[in-house]
UniProtKB/TrEMBL annotation:
Domain (J): residue spans on this chain: 2-62
Protein's name according to its UniProt entry: J domain-containing protein
TM stretches of this protein: 282-301, 313-333, 375-402, 434-454
Repressor in keyword set: no
Protein source organism: Pseudomonas gingeri
InterPro entries per the UniProt record, alphabetical: DnaJ_domain, J_dom_sf
Presence of keyword Protease: no
Length: 460
């Protein structure tokens, strides 16, 4: 949608009409209700106003006396050996036409390289109104030269809109120049530039307040490390999601814009995102708690079996009591996540110093965010099973950090035919973790039965 459609105006509207329409539309488009719509309206107003000013300048140029100062382009025309033929005839030989078009191209190129866009448009209009360039073949060749020139140089969106208006190019009506691939490249470039200018307007907001503005401010502005850290402290789930969406759009839809960003790695912020709780964490907590309780009451279960008493009540109690840590965890963990997110910057910095890259290659694990809950679990296992329980919990975790071989094996077609692979798939463990766990489980059971009151199976 172009600026005229947004402002609900014809393309020949003057500056006064543009300002009136903008003021009228502002009554129904407020920045606090529709920030995106307000931004589009503001950009359309500025673009339309710029086009109207250029149109007024063109009219002023047409009324200027012949004694006006000579421009660079006019100077080049006076020096052209074919100027007189061009002015007095409506035809040129093919060689003369090719040479004249190249001279025009050089003058327009000089304006673009000097960032003189208004002069470029004015000069282009003078060239295109010449009689010999209204001949179909010459005009087609002239448009192709101009199209290639735009493809090779830098310019603003208002300039491209003025060129399209001058030649009547419009995607909606199907009037487009050749070659088609150059035209499509220019259209994509306009879409890309429009997207970038919209982002830049959001990023340059002195007081960004919504998620999209904060994400644009983070990715587009040259912030110091300290400024980035201060910005992260303001982020919540919506801001992190906006960063993810914007980074993916830049990386996969507009990769050419990456070189214009302060940091081409648009995912640099990911190391500071909150770490969610894994979906199967509560199942693991229940299974581990139930096993710890069963081992704790193993002597009682053995006595009941020897005396012919039922053990189902004890087993059900162990399974039920194992839900208590799950309920407590589901209550406390969201609050811990909220609290830990407030000092995630310091947590990341501390983790980078203390955790070797070998065990934390992607920076996911955090000393405080993950360490505190793990320490609480370790204390629970020590309370239930003493030093052996604590050692089993810590050992399995440490092996998991260092050993990544065959972790989480593929699910087998038949669990009965490949039981080991099934266990590895379900537990997401490596073979070394499983072997260590089974060894420690055997040692713990042996000590419980062979050495009642063994200090390593009871907390001291």
């Amino acid at each position: 949608m172009d600026c005229w459609s947004i402002l609900q105006l014809p393309e020949d509207a003057d500056q006064r009409s543009i300002k009136r329409s903008y003021a009228r539309l502002l009554k129904s488009t407020r920045p606090d209700d529709d920030a995106e719509g307000f931004q589009r309206l503001r950009e359309a107003y500025e673009d339309a106003l710029e086009i109207a000013r250029w149109r007024d300048d063109d009219e002023d140029i047409a009324e200027v006396s012949v004694v006006a100062p000579v421009t660079v382009a006019e100077e080049s025309r006076h020096h052209s050996p074919h100027t007189e033929a061009v002015q007095q005839t409506e035809w040129l030989t093919p060689a003369q036409a090719a040479r004249q078009l190249q001279e025009y191209r050089q003058v327009l190129l000089a304006h673009l390289q000097a960032a003189q866009e208004r002069e470029f448009v004015n000069q282009l209009k003078l060239y295109s109104e010449q009689s010999w360039l209204k001949v179909f073949d010459h005009r087609q060749e002239w448009q192709q030269i101009l199209l290639q020139l735009l493809h090779e140089t830098r310019w603003s969106l208002p300039l491209f809109e003025r060129v399209c208006q001058l030649f009547g190019w419009d995607e909606r009506t199907g009037v487009t120049p050749e070659p088609a691939w150059v035209w499509r490249a220019l259209i994509q470039r306009c879409e890309q530039e429009g997207f970038y200018q919209q982002l830049l307007a959001k990023a340059q907001n002195p007081q960004p307040w919504n998620a999209s503005q904060l994400a644009a401010h983070l990715l587009l502005m040259p912030l110091t490390r300290a400024q980035q850290m201060a910005l992260y402290q303001r982020f919540d789930a919506a801001e992190w999601q906006a960063c993810e969406q914007l980074a993916e759009t830049l990386a996969y839809q507009y990769p050419a814009l990456l070189e214009r960003l302060p940091d081409p790695d648009v995912f640099f912020w990911r190391e500071f995102t909150p770490r969610p709780i894994a979906g199967n964490s509560w199942s693991w907590l229940w299974a581990a708690s139930a096993l710890a309780l069963l081992l704790h009451f193993l002597p009682l279960l053995a006595r009941k079996v020897l005396h012919g008493e039922s053990i189902w009540v004890t087993l059900m109690l162990a399974g039920t009591w194992a839900l208590i840590p799950v309920w407590v965890g589901r209550f406390l963990m969201p609050r811990w996540l909220t609290l830990s997110s407030r000092f995630i910057v310091r947590d990341v910095q501390l983790s980078q110093r203390l955790l070797p890259r070998r065990i934390n290659p992607n920076g996911y694990w955090l000393v405080l965010r993950h360490g505190v809950p793990q320490a609480v679990l370790a204390l629970c296992f020590w309370t239930a099973l003493g030093a052996l329980g604590l050692g089993t919990f810590v050992g399995v975790g440490l092996i998991g950090l260092f050993d990544h071989s065959r972790r989480g094996a593929e699910r087998p077609a038949s669990a009965w035919q490949r039981p080991l692979q099934s266990v590895l798939h379900w537990t997401r463990w490596s073979p070394a973790q499983l072997v260590f766990f089974l060894i420690m489980l055997g040692i713990t059971v042996t000590c419980i039965f062979s050495y009642p009151g063994f200090p390593l199976t009871r907390p001291s």
